[in-house]
Design goal:
The protein has 111 residues and is mostly beta strands. Helix content is 0%, strand content 38%. It is globular. It starts with 22 loop residues before the first strand and ends with a strand.
Length: 111
């Protein structure tokens, strides 16, 4: 029988948490940011993989996906974040509009 680790109430980055870490980018300026190590320092160690994106000012943030390596982008919605699978920086980006916003990324492990 496998070991079962409790995950309820465990902080991101702690043993037993499904989130490997919590990466915070304070007051990220207006712009389009492909999800890469260059734009989000520290995320490269967790890619490829699932990442939960949270914006502290949700109205400012849209996530966009590209199926042609960045030539065309399709916005998911103006939800201020959500789950994304990042395999390369040319397929997923975070768009920040109308004002600087703090972005928090929670990479998920082994799922």
């Amino acid at each position: 029988m496998p070991n079962v680790m409790p995950i309820s109430g465990v902080a991101a980055g702690s043993t037993g948490s499904p989130y490997l870490t919590k990466l915070t980018y304070t007051t990220k300026a207006v712009g389009n940011y492909p999800v890469t190590e260059a734009n989000f320092a520290g995320i490269g160690a967790y890619l490829p993989g699932w990442v939960l994106v949270v914006a502290l000012t949700p109205a400012n943030v849209t996530i966009s996906l590209s199926n042609d390596n960045g030539a065309t982008w399709n916005a998911l919605s103006n939800t201020g974040g959500g789950w994304i699978y990042v395999d390369s920086g040319t397929t997923v980006r975070i768009n920040i509009a109308t004002g600087a916003t703090t972005i928090i990324l929670f990479p998920m492990g082994n799922f």
